[in-house]
Amino acid sequence: MRHVTTKSTDPAVIVGLEEPDDAAVYRVSDEIAFVQTVDFFTPIVDDAYDWGYIAAANALSDIYAMGARPVTALNLVGWPRSLGFELLGRVLDGGRDACDAAGVSIVGGHSVDDPEPKYGLSVTGLVHPERAIRKTGASPGHDLILTKPLGTGIVSSALKDGVASPDDVAAATRSMKLLNSAAADEMIAAGVVAATDVTGFGLLGHLSQMLGRVLDARLSLPAISFIQGAERYVGAGILPGGSRRNRDAGAGQVIAPEVAETTLALLFDAQTSGGLLIAAEPGRSTTLVERLRARGYPAAAVIGRIEAGSGLIHVEVDR
After folding, report:
1. Cβ distance 83 to 147 under 8 Å?
2. What is the per-residue pLDDT for 297?
3. What is the 3-state secondary structure (H, E, C) of 105-124?
4. How many Å is the Cα radius of gyration of the chain?
5. Secondary-structure breakdown of the chain: helix, strand, coil percentages, each rounded to the nearest 5
6. Taking Cα atoms as reference points, which of 313, 294, 297 lies closest to residue 305?
7. What are the angstrom distances between the C-alpha of 317 and each of 124, 257, 305?
8. Per-residue model confidence as pLDDT tens digits over 75-90
9. CA 306, 219, 318, 184 torsion-angle sign
10. Is the CB of residue 106 less than 8 Å from the CB of residue 60?
């Protein structure tokens, strides 16, 4: 079926299909807008509770990326009866605890009989109609800040292949379970001009969406953090299908002649519950990074800068 993105005629739609962002935004009054998103996926870790927690954190992240406060959620479940409902209970426990940590009420949901297990959330948040943070809005001279390390997709694939070490899986799981709530609080307080969360399109894919066709980005590779073990697994030939597709789709926009292929694969790696990618004024970025690290994001760093251009991403190894 062809995907149709017809522009809405409803004047209350602030962000919708015609200009997609991390979540939809709908004005309900001069002071309040709903922010809505949905996300679910199949298991990416072995522990049912952790999968539920990660899936919920991932869904909540779209609301945080828009500078909004999530308030309610609906469970979305696809479940094979052969797995039993005790295991499903552990998945739902993880999702509930993630929402509790975020101050979000799960108010309902829907389940279907499915041969492959799936779990996620539909989330509603609140924001002032004039204060939603969009992907676009950056300008030449703005710093780029990333709050989490990259590599969750590669480590998850290594786990599925039975070759990931427990320590590497634990590191990836901690990163994916870390909510972006505090990071959102800090970026709102800093008055940032644009943001997105790094998920399925990888760092370079989501950055490309921020740039459009009028901006370039210049990244400093040494400033970007990676989850332990991720580069080793890429070197062994482990790479998720989504990461390969990201590379195929975005290679023409990336200029990185000195970057090793294994490292470049990490920059394209499809993330789950990744960090926020933030564009901030240079005068505010240092303090923002300090605040982010103090709030539990030790990998937070200025990783590059926005320039005028045409949508290219330059990755440099010695900046």
Report:
1. no
2. 98
3. EEEEEEEEECCCCEEEEEEE
4. 19
5. 40, 25, 35
6. 313
7. 41, 10, 14
8. 999 999 999 899 999 9
9. positive
10. no
* Cα 16 from Cα 26, distance rounded (Å): 8
Reading the block at residue 249, the tokens are 């789709």
Strand bridging mode 194-197 / 313-316: unpaired
- Comparing C-alpha atoms, which of 243, 201, 199, 213 is closest to residue 312? 213
Pair 272, 157: CB distance under 8 Å: no
Angle between helices 48-65 and 166-177 (to 10 degrees): 40
| Residue 1: predicted pLDDT | 33
Looking up tokens 């800068």 gives 305
94-131 confidence digits (pLDDT tens): 999 999 999 999 999 999 999 999 999 999 999 999 99
pLDDT given at position 34: 98
End-to-end CA distance of the chain: 46
Q: Name the strand (E) or helix (H) holding 278.
A: strand 276-280
pTM score of the predicted model: 0.95
Condensed to tens digits (0 to 9), the pLDDT of residues 265-284 reads 999 999 999 999 999 999 99
pLDDT value of position 18: 83
For residue range 26-52, what is the model confidence (pLDDT) as tens digits? 999 999 999 999 999 999 999 999 999
